[in-house]
Amino acid sequence: VPAVGTSTVKRGFWSSRMAFILAATGSAVGLGNIWKFPYITGENGGGAFVLVYLLCIAIIGIPIMMAEVLIGRRGGHSPINSMRTLARNAKLTPRWVWLAGMGVFASFVILSFYSVIGGWATSYVLTAASGQLSGQSADAIGAMFSGLLGDPVRLLIWHSLFMGLTMLVVARGLRGGLERSVTILMPALFILLLIMVGYASTTGHFGEAARFLFQPDFSRLTTQGVLIALGHAFFTLSLGIGVMMAYGSYLQQDISIARTSVTVSVLDTVVALLAGMAIFPIVFANGLEPGSGPGLIFQTLPLAFAQMPWGSVFGTVFFVLLVFAAWTSAISLLEPIVEWLEELDGMNRVTSTLLAGGLCWLLGIASILSLNAWSGFTPLAMFPLFEGKTIFDLLDYLTANVLLPLGGLTVAVFAGWFLKRAMLEEELALPQPWFGLWYSVLRYISPVAVAIVFVYNLV
Ligand code: PFF
Ligand code: NA
């Protein structure tokens, strides 16, 4: 067991509130917003699902993000050592550290398939840049995508490239430089999404898409849909895993945890909703199926790039920015695993990166094969909840909808019920009634809501 505070990482402070927001936004905004949110919204019937997702962000996500950042700043170390310090200071059992251990495990599993999807996005940089998209029909674009999924060797090459780039940054500790580039690339992504929304509004199906996304039809919402909305709130905000704890440990004392958490959550949500408004008009204009699954953005946006003026240029820039957004998220997943290995074993950074990244890469191969050779292999099909789910589907489903909410629930209980109220008040420095509101939501509403959704899905 490592002693407290033996982290080999030099601890400094974020130069400003802005730097924390950039890093946290870099982790939050990623494939979850642009790839996952639109397709799970399509699969779960639209409006009612979106409403539940937004509620989960507001009453579960934001309070838990505040708790994570608070634990990180108060603990001042990596998630494991922060939990250890706070548990010891509050005279609690060191078993609370297992929470952070579970986070490391979840990061590992998520990164394995996240990198495969990051690989798809990377391959589309080349597809767009080479002009292959221009003038293509919906069918041709669909066939291109199926061709990619059906080819394990190509998938492996792109997965390896994406994982390699992620490992490179983590091994060399380049995060600082990368985060500075977020200042340019995030606003650029935002502007490009606005352009895509602008293009989508010329398809004549904008109203239909807006109704699909924002007009709740509760008859289309299932119990499982509620769990998926909840799980996605955790996934998209990078919660329940220790990432925000790790980033919080660098946050200066005089900066408001509440304001920064709200800012990051709002930015993340806006990007997801813009992605939805860019994609669904194209879906309806071309008679595509909203519930067609993980390929949704790779079959819709390329269609826009095929038709719009300067489509190859916009397409290339868009996929470059998407890869960048995915990259900053992937780095935030790999960092904690590497830091944990360093602390555990005194292993150096390069060796720990090679080990952690190499294992993620290896597990990623199972996700790649799920898309082709093993597409009929559904190991947990005997449970109705997991019917038809491949290994890739299961890794995604179980991390987002089980591990992350469970991690978040534990954080809420730890901060809300076991840490001293006076300490929480001091850290948050919120005026009344805001502190009281946060405290009650964290103690009663967030954990109970997560528990109810869990129980309903198991029964
Ligand atoms: N929040 C990222 C996204 O929306 O793409 C994914 C993610 C990153 C999840 C880091 C969890 C995490 F710890
Ligand atoms: Na996100």
List keywords for this structure.
single chain, 18 helices, SNS_sf, transmembrane, globular, binds sodium ion, symport, disordered N terminus, YocR/YhdH-like, mainly alpha, binds 4-fluoro-L-phenylalanine, 459 residues, Amino acid/polyamine transporter I
Tell me briefly what this model is.
The protein has helices spanning 17-28, 31-43, 47-75, 79-89, 97-129, 138-149, 152-171, 175-200, 206-214, 223-236, 243-248, 257-285, 296-307, 311-345, 349-370, 391-418, 421-428, 434-458.
Structural description of this entry:
It comes from Pokkaliibacter plantistimulans. It is found in: Membrane. It is a multi-pass membrane protein. InterPro entries: Na/ntran_symport, SNS_sf, YocR/YhdH-like. This protein has one domain: Up-down Bundle (Amino acid/polyamine transporter I). The protein is built from 18 helices and no strands. The chain is 75% helix and 0% strand. It starts with 16 loop residues before the first helix and ends with a helix. The protein is mainly α. α8 crosses α12 and α14 packs across α15 (349-370). The model is unreliable at 1-10 (pLDDT under 50). Bound molecules: 4-fluoro-L-phenylalanine (PFF) and sodium ion. 4-fluoro-L-phenylalanine (PFF) binds next to α1, α2, α5, α10 and α14.
